[in-house]
Amino acid sequence: MSRYVVTGGAGFIGSAIVRALLRAGASEVAVIDNLLTGHELNLDEVRGSIEFHRADIRNYDEIAGILRGADVVFHEAAIPSVPRSIDEPVPSHEININGTFNVLLAAKAGGVGRVVYAASSSAYGDTEVLPKVEAMITRPKSPYALQKLVGEYYCNIFSGVYGLETVALRYFNVYGPRQDPSSPYSGVLSIFMKSVLERCSPTIFGDGEQSRDFTYVEDVAELNLKAARAKNVSGNLYNAGNGGRITLNQAWALVQRLSGVEIPAKYGPPRAGDVHDSQADTTRAVRDLGHAPKFSFEDGMRRTLEWYRRAAAA
Ligand SMILES: NC(=O)c1ccc[n+]([C@@H]2O[C@H](COP(=O)([O-])OP(=O)(O)OC[C@H]3O[C@@H](n4cnc5c(N)ncnc54)[C@H](O)[C@@H]3O)[C@@H](O)[C@H]2O)c1
Questions:
Q1: 3-state class (DSSP) for residue 147
Q2: Containing domain of residue 42, as a range?
Q3: CA–CA separation, 273 vs 267, rounded Å?
Q4: Residue nearest to atom 11 of ligand 1 (CA)
Q5: Rounded to whole angstroms, what are the CA distances from 61 to 56, 65, 173?
Q6: Could you read off the pLDDT of 279-309 as tens digits, one per residue?
Q7: Which of 117, 144, 154, 216 is labelled catalytic?
Q8: Cβ distance 72 to 4 under 8 Å?
Q9: Do the domain assignments include residue 191?
Q10: E strand or H helix at 268, and its extent?
C-alpha cells in the first residue's frame, strides 16, 4: 500500500493533486499545510479520506515524522507570488528556499521514494526565443523566480549526491477551480473570474499584450501523478505547460464572451518582476512522462467559470 504526502495540499494545485490521487485509488494520503494561503475548505469533500496536518515546512521537526516512509511526496507548499516576493522577500525566502530544503532533508532522512517538486516557469525570465525549452539559460527576474529555481537545483543535488529520487515540474500559469482570487497577489485568471462575477473591471498591469501558457489545474495534477510513476527520471526537470500562448487581453475577451458580460478592463503600469511572454516546449515532458494535457483554454475557462459561479451562489 503506497503512502503519499502533499505539502501545500490545502492550496489550489495541492488540493487538485490530493483529489487526483484519491481518484486513482490511493488509500493513504497525508496533507501538510499551515493554511497561509490555502483553505481547509479546498479539501472539504475528501476530508474523511485523508490525514490533515496543520504544520509548517519551515519547522523540520513538525514535518519529518509525517514524511517518513512516504512513497511519494508532492512538494507544493510555497508563497507562490512574484509581487509578494518583492514586497515581502523574507517570508518568501524562508518558505520557498529553507522550507524546500527541509522537505528534501526530511525526505532523505525518512527514506522517501520520490519527491515531485512544483517548480516555476518564472525561472526562465524573458527569453529571446519562444517556446521555452528546459536547456535554456535561466534568467530569474524576481525573488520568487530565483527561489523556485534554487529549489530545482536542490532537487537535482539531492538526487545526484544523496540518491533521493526527485522530479521537478516547471508549471506555466496554472488556472482552474479553487484558485483563491481574494488577494492582489492572486493569479490573474482568478481575478478575472471574480471581476466578471462582481461585474467590475479588472486591472491589467501593462498593455495586456503579455502572454502566458495557461494550463488547466487537472492537467497539472495528472502530470504530477505521471511524474511520480515514470522510470529513470530522477534529478530531471520538465516543463509542465500546455504549449499554447494567450495574451491577457485575449483571456479577458474570452471571460466576457463566456459569461455574456461586457466590461472594459482598466490598465495600470507594468509590474516589476513580471515576465512578458511565456510558452512551454513540452517535448521532453511528453516523451519521458507521457504528458498529455486534455483541456483547451476555452474548455478549461468554461469549467472554471462554472465553478466560480457555483461557489459564489453557495
Ligand atoms: N499557480 C501557478 O500558476 C503556479 C505556477 C508555477 C509554480 N507554482 C507553484 O505551485 C505550488 C502551488 O501553488 P498554488 O498556486 O496552488 O498556490 P496556493 O497558495 O494555493 O498553495 C500553496 C499552499 O502552500 C501552503 N503553505 C505556504 N507556506 C507554507 C508553509 N510554510 N508550510 C506549510 N504550508 C505552506 C499554503 O497555505 C497553500 O495551501 C507552489 O509551490 C507554487 O510556487 C504555481
A1: helix
A2: 3-174+217-243+279-294
A3: 17
A4: 76
A5: 9, 7, 32
A6: 999 999 999 999 999 999 999 999 999 999 9
A7: 144
A8: yes
A9: no
A10: strand 266-268
Is 60 one of the catalytic residues? no
- For residue 185, being part of any structural domain is answered with no
**Is 31 a pocket residue for ligand 1 (Cβ < 6 Å)?**
no
Is 0.85 topped by the overall pTM? yes
63 CB-near residues (< 8 Å, 6+ apart): 7, 32, 53, 55, 56, 57, 102, 103, 106
Predicted local confidence at residue 1, as pLDDT: 78
Number of domains in the chain: 1
* 196 found inside a domain: no
Helices (H), 217-268: 217-229, 248-259
Query: Is the minimum distance from the CB of 34 to ligand 1 under 6 angstroms?
Result: yes
Picking from 212, 196, 181, the residue whose alpha carbon sits closest to that of residue 276 is: 212
Please write the tens of the pLDDT for every residue from 226-252.
Answer: 999 999 999 999 999 999 999 999 999
CATH number of the domain that residue 162 is part of:
3.40.50.720
d(CA 188, CA 179): 10
Question: Do 74 and 6 contact (CB within 8 A), yes or no?
Answer: yes
Indicate if ligand 1 lies below 6 Å from the C-beta of 76: yes
Residue 35 CA: nearest ligand 1 atom is: 37
